[in-house]
Amino acid sequence: MNIVYHENTRTFHLYNDSISYIMTVMRNGHLGQLYFGKRIRDKEDFSYLLETCERPMTSYVYENDRTFSLEHIRQEYPVFGSTDYRQPAVDIRQENGSRILDLRYKCHVITGGKPALPGLPATYTETDSEAQTLTVTLEDPVTKIHADLLYTIFARGGILTRSVRFANLGKESLLLGRAMSLCLDLPDSDYVWQQLSGCWARECHIHTRNLEPGISSIGSMRGNSSHEHNPFLVLKRPNTDERMGEAVGFSLIYSGNFRMQAEVDAHDTLRILAGIDPETFEWKLDAGETFQTPEAVMVYTDRGLNHMSQTFHKLYQKRLARGYWRDKARPILNNNWEATYFDFTEDRLIEIASKAKECGAELFVLDDGWFGARSNDSAGLGDWKANRDRLPNGISGLSERIEQLGMKFGLWFEPEMTNKDSDFYRQHPDWILAAPSRSQSHGRNQYVLDFSRKEVVEAIYGQMSDILGQAKISYIKWDMNRSITECYSAAWPADRQGEIYHRYILGVYDLYDRLTREFPQVLFESCASGGGRFDPGMLYFAPQGWISDDSDAVERLKIQYGTSLCYPVSSMGTHVSVTPNHQVFRNTPLHTRANVAYFGTFGYELDLNKLTPEENEEVKRQIAFMKKYREVLQFGTFYRLKSPFEGNEAAWMVVSEDQKTALVGWYRILNCVNGSYTRVRLEGLNPSYCYRNAYSGACHFGDELMHAGLITSDETAGQVPSGVKPCTDFESRIYVLEV
Ligand code: DGJ
Q1: For the chain, how many structural domains are there in total?
Q2: Do 419 and 310 belong together in one domain?
C-alpha cells in the first residue's frame, strides 16, 4: 500500500495490491479525479486522463480559453455556483447570501493508519501499517473555510474510505447546506445500479435498475436510515455476476437521514454522491468551528459481487465492529417476544427459559413490557424500572433466577422514546421533539426524545446504567420503533434547527458509546422494528442487529440474501419462530426455519414448551449443530450461490478459513412434481481437498463440487421410493462438507 504525491504533476496516487485511486490538482486549484479501479502501475504523469474539449453552451473558467469547464471535468469535491451544473458535493451559504465557493488545494499530509472521527462511528486500524491516510486541505480564498478531504486506503483489498472535515478559519458565520461525504466522478455510466430496499418486515430486497440520464437516488428523511432504503449501493458492469466482473459498492457509516445518488450527464459521465441528506440538513458553522461528515466506504472489485461482499464482510466484522464480542461466536438465545408479547409473569418467563436451557440455549432475552406501566404499547417508555406487578423481584431477581438456570440474561430497551403515559414524560414534557404551537404526531403511541440535548441523553443513560450496574445483564436489545416527525428542539435557537436530525443521531451514538465503554462485555443487538436502522453506524456499537420483524423462513431468504450484499453473517440476528408464522401465517417445516436461521446469530423466538416432544428433540439437535458449526457459519467466507429473487430455489454457503469445512444451505420454496435435476456449483473450496458430504455420505474433490456441482435433485420428485421421506413445500437442506 502506498500513497504517492508526484510534485511535478501535482498528482496523488493511492494504491495497494488491488486498486488505484488517482487525482490531480488542476490548474484552477480544484482537485480533479483521474482514475479509480484495478491497480495500475505508478508513474509521474496521468494528466492525459483529464479530458477537456470545447463544447457549445458551456461556461468556461478562463478568458480566451474554451477548454476548461468544470461541467466536463471529473472532480473530487465539486462546489455550487461554478461552471459545473451537476449537483455539487458541498453548498455553503455565506453572510452576504452568496453560495458561491472555490475550494482550492492548499496542502496535504500523509499519515500511517487512520484517524478516528470525533463523535462518529468509522472503520479503524489497529496498527499504522494496516492503512495510510491522505488528508488534502482545500481552502476557499474568500471565506477561508477549509475542507479536509480524508482518504484512507487499506493495505489489502479494494477498500477506500472517505470523509470530509470542515473548519471555518474565517471571520463570518457560515451555513453548511450540503456536506457530502463522498463524490466520485466516473468516466462512463455503463453500470447497473443495485439497491437494498423494502419496508417494515420486507427489508433489504435487491432492486436493480439501469442508469439513465438524470439522477437516480435512494435516501431517508425519517431520522433513521430506514427500512425503505439501506445506506448501501452497488454499481456493477452489465455482465458482472456473483462470480466475475467489475463492481463498486458504496456504503455510508451513518444511521440518520442520508442520500446516495448517481447523476448521469449528457455525455454519459457519472457522478456518485453519498452523505447526509441535504434536504433535511443545515449546519451553522461559526468562526473557529469544525464539522466532520460521516464516513463513506467504497469497495472496488473485478472479481464479481461475492468478492465485493466478502471484502465488506471482513472489513465490517474486523475493522468496524469492536470490542469483546467482535470475534466471538454469538450465544444462542431464546427471546420471549413472539412467545408472550406483553402477557407474562416472572414464573412464566422462568418456564420458557427453563425449557430453552434444557434444549441447550445459552441466553434468555426479556423483550418489551418489563418496565413502568407497560402492559401494552401506549404506556411506560421512559420509565426504565421493573414493573413489580409482573416482576416482583425486579430485574435483579429475575436475572438471578435465569443465571441459576445456567443461562445468561438479556434485556430489551427502547431508550430514545417515551409514551405520554409515563412518569418520565410527565416530568419532562418538553424533552420530546416537537414544534411550538403545533400538533405532535405519534407512532405506536410514542414520541421521540430530543437526543440532541445532552441532559436528555444523560437522564436515559443514568437509568440504563443503573440497571446494568445492578442486575446480571449480558445482552441488550436496543430497539427504536418509530421515525421522527416535527423535528424541532426546544433547546436550540432558530438558526440551529437544521442541525437537529444530525444532532439526534450524535446523541444516540453518544449514549451507545458511553454504555458500551462502561459495560464492555455486554453484547448489544440493535433493532428498529426489525431492520429500520440496520446500518454500518449501528454495527460500530452493536456487532449484531435484528434484521427484520419478519421471522418467516421463506421471507427471510430474500432478506438475508439481500442483506449479505454488504453485511456479514455475524451481524444478522436470525431466529426460529412458531408456525403458523406471526407475520405471514405460513407453515414451514421446523428444519427449514433453522436451516435459514443458522446463517446468522441464531436463536428462538417462541415458547419451546409449546412444541411436541419430537420437535423439542429436533430443537436440541439444531442447537447442538449450531454450537458445533457457529464459528464457521458466522465467521467463514460467505458465498451467494442461487438467488431467491430469481427462482424457486435459493442457495448460499460458508467456507472455513482453512477450507476444510463448508456448509451449504439449499432451499426450495414450492415443491414441484417430477421436477428437473438440480445442482449448485460451489465456491471457495480447495480443489484438491476431498470433502465428505454428510448428507449423502459421498466424497468429492473440491474441483468437482465447484465445477460439476453439488447435486441437489430431489429423489422424491414424482414418486416417493419406499423408506424415503417425501419433500414438501418449503424444503431445505444443509450440506455439511468436511475434509
Ligand atoms: C419491535 C422489534 O423489532 C420486536 O422484535 C420487538 O422487540 C418489539 N419491537 C417490541 O415492542
Answers
A1: 3
A2: no
Q: Do residues 569 and 627 both lie within one domain?
A: yes
CATH number assigned to the domain comprising residue 712: 2.60.40.1180
- Residue 564's CB: how many other CB atoms inside 10 A? 25
Q: For residues 396 and 129, what is the distance between their CA atoms, to the nearest angstrom? A: 46
Nearest ligand 1 atom to the CA of 377 is 11
The ligand 1 atom at the shortest distance from the C-alpha of residue 444 is 11
d(CA 115, CA 131): 10
Please name the residue that has the C-alpha cell 455486554.
522
Pocket test for ligand 1, best of 336, 549, 581 (most atoms within 8 A of CB): 549
Residues 653 and 630 in one domain: no
The torsion defined by the Cα of 522, 526, 529 and 533, in degrees rounded to 10, comes to 170
The Cβ-side half-sphere exposure at 541, using a 13 Å CA radius, reads 32
Distance (Å, whole) CA 74 – CA 53: 13
Show the domain range for 705: 649-738
Same domain (yes/no): 352, 279: no
420 vs 424: CA distance, rounded Å: 8
- Can you read off the three cell numbers belonging to residue 92? 455553503
Query: Following DSSP, what letter does each residue of 538-600 receive, concatenated?
Result: HHHH-SEEE-BS---HHHHHHHHHHHTTTS-GGGEE-EEE-SS-TTT-----HHHHHHHHTSS
Q: Encode 405-443 in three state secondary structure.
A: CCCEEEEEECCCEEECECHHHHHCHHHECCCCCCCCCCE
587, 653: one domain: no
Considering the domain architecture, whether residues 250 and 112 belong to the same structural domain is answered as yes
Ligand 1 interacting residues, C-beta cut-off 6 A: 337, 367-368, 412, 479, 481, 527, 529-530, 546, 549
Q: Is 657 domain-assigned?
A: yes
Rounded Cα gap, residues 253 and 122, in angstroms: 6
Task: Answer yes or no: 466 catalytic.
Answer: no
Q: In this structure, are residues 668 and 649 in contact, taking their beta carbons and an 8 Å threshold?
A: yes
Lowest-confidence region among 200-214, 385-399, 570-584, 669-683: 669-683
Place of cell 414524560: 425
309 in the same domain as 338: no
In contact, 180 and 275? CB cutoff 8 Å: yes
Concerning whether 188 is annotated as a catalytic residue, the answer is no
Considering the domain architecture, whether residues 615 and 654 belong to the same structural domain is answered as no
Domain end, chosen from 574, 601, 635, is at: 635
Q: How far is the CA of 477 from the centre of ligand 1 (A)?
A: 9
What are the Cα distances from residue 241, in Å, to 150, 160, 244, 469, 630? 31, 22, 6, 50, 28
Cα separation, 109 vs 235, in Å, equals: 31
Non-local (6+) Cβ contacts of 395 within 8 A are 370, 386, 411, 467, 470, 471, 473
Domain CATH number, residue 52 = 2.70.98.60
CA–CA dist 596, 301 (Å, integer): 28
- Report the CATH number at residue 598: 3.20.20.70
719 residue type, one letter: Q
pLDDT of 303-336, one tens digit each?
999 999 999 999 999 999 999 999 999 999 999 9
In the listed set 583, 605, 635, which residue is the last one of a domain according to the structure? 635
Is 183 domain-assigned?
yes
Q: What is the residue with the minimal CA distance to atom 4 of ligand 1?
A: 529
Q: What is the mean pLDDT of the chain?
A: 97
Residue 642 lies in a domain: no
CA distance 593 to 611: 14
- Sequence-separated (6 or more) residues with CB below 8 Å from residue 262: 189, 191, 193, 211, 215, 216, 217, 233, 235, 270, 271, 272
Are 131 and 153 within 8 A, CB to CB? yes
pTM for the complete prediction?
Answer: 0.98
How many other CB atoms are there within 10 angstroms of residue 574's CB atom? Answer: 25
Does 328 reside within a domain?
A: no
- Each residue's pLDDT tens digit, 385-428: 999 999 999 999 999 999 999 999 999 999 999 999 999 999 99
